[in-house]
Amino acid sequence: MKTLILGASGLVGGNCLKWFNEQGWECLGTHFSFETPATEFYNTLDHTDTSNVDVDAFAPEIIIHCGALTWVDYCEENPEESFEKTVVSTHNAVALAQKHNAKLVYLSTDYVFDGEKGFYSEEDQTNPLGVYAKHKLEAEEHISAQLSDFLICRITNVYGDEIRGKNFIARLSANMVKGDAMDLKLPIDQYATPVNAIDVARAIYLLLDAQKKGIYHFASTDYLNRVQLAERVFQYFGHEQVKISSVTTHDLKQAAKRPLNGGMSAAKFNSEFPHFRWTNVDDYLSELQHRLQDKE
Ligand SMILES: NC(=O)c1ccc[n+]([C@@H]2O[C@H](COP(=O)([O-])OP(=O)(O)OC[C@H]3O[C@@H](n4cnc5c(N)ncnc54)[C@H](OP(=O)(O)O)[C@@H]3O)[C@@H](O)[C@H]2O)c1
To answer: Which atom of ligand 1 sits closest to the CA of residue 86?
Structure first.
């Protein structure tokens, strides 16, 4: 299948590009500000940009829209930019899907919920708390109003291999391995279901291959707060110069409100794909440890 991956220089898009290529699908992955050897420039906010790769010539049958501004506190303080990069970019991705009669896959988040309940299912009532969250929901609603053939995959706390190594687990592991002194003050009351980006790619691939439609929640077996997540990394790469202490979200005074009791239930996906095995944080960290040992 000809698959256009918008935002393939990022964590989720980069893993989709890798996995879909490995499955033999013809892929075009795009970057915006961070050029990679595997991607071409494309600005989701301006289809007339003369530097854009020619997506019309590629004629995608599937478009995976991972292009986004994911920094929630920045979004809270810059709502216009958040609107552009989340809602307008999705309007443009929908228009592109309509033009090519392509299926659209959109990556969304547990932030569309208020974090009162946790382990959210696809049927649970949305109630976004902040600007980023409201814009993600608005983008979802636009897709479901305009398209009949789409997938909305909600994820949270994504980790895994990525070129820039900017996700929480990758950053912590890299800094601990370097031997950096760290004094981490992390919220003990923000719970979620971390998921590996390569599993997100594998799950999307299965949904597409089976021609599924609609909303799906992705999650593995981990249910951890930020302190527990950092402690997991510490178990593999920690040293005496690393200090992890707990604070509350209230103490952190972050600009954007967080859904404290977040996370997903993947029961719907798991019932439709009973042989799929989600990897977990320990799988990733122990594999990373082996990889680093092999390098030595
Ligand atoms: N990571 C998580 O924990 C998480 C959780 C829930 C939901 N999600 C959702 O998953 C999706 C992917 O997230 P991610 O973690 O992979 O984000 P990411 O690593 O920050 O990647 C974002 C991608 O968007 C691209 N991009 C930004 N502005 C663009 C523009 N104007 N035109 C084209 N591309 C643009 C970036 O390109 P450059 O870097 O080249 O500029 C990058 O490739 C997002 O929709 C996000 O909301 C992620």
So the answer is: 45
